[in-house]
Amino acid sequence: MIKPQVKKLAAAAKKTKKPVKVFETEWFTIDELPDQYKKKPYYRLNCEDSVAIIALTPDKKMIMIRQFRPVIGSSLIEWPAGGIDKKESPFRAIQRELLEETGYKCDSLAHIGSHYVFPSRISSTVHAFLGRGARLVDGKKGEKDIEVILLDEKQFEKLITKTGHLVAAPAIAFYYLAKVKGLL
Prior knowledge:
Blueprint: H1 4-14, E1 20-24, E2 28-34, E3 41-47, E4 50-56, E5 62-69, E6 74-78, E7 81-83, H2 90-102, E8 104-105, E9 108-116, E10 125-132, E11 135-136, E12 147-151, H3 153-161, H4 169-180
Parallel strand pairs: 4-10
Antiparallel strand pairs: 1-2, 2-3, 4-5, 4-7, 5-6, 5-12, 8-11, 9-10
């Protein structure tokens, strides 16, 4: 049985007015949404959807990257990832991003899953992939500000539990999602 409070909230949600764009950059927009529950504005950050990949070399090393993240003022270790360009599929975007950031290309790709990043504030989805047979492409180098790191599973698990190393949360989440699905 649905409680009267839940019915009331559902009815209020149906009356929600359209979002109003209050800020815009080339990277994101911010919308003001009416908050039907507290009667004050609520803000949503809109970013392009993105892709991330757990790329495995033939000897089962995972390709990770370390790059500086200005928002936190520090470098993070994460999977190669990036935005999806207009009219680009997530499958094509991850191939492009992996090559651009690392200089690697995979023999095969499998979609692990698509998930919201931070749904209480951000509207975007990240599409995660697992790549096998990752090899350096002749003449290709990754981006100059990105360090490529090769880790086996034990090294990765030690890294995420060791104090002092910053690993992006999606890297941990997608790693365990791939393990639960039997892909690693």
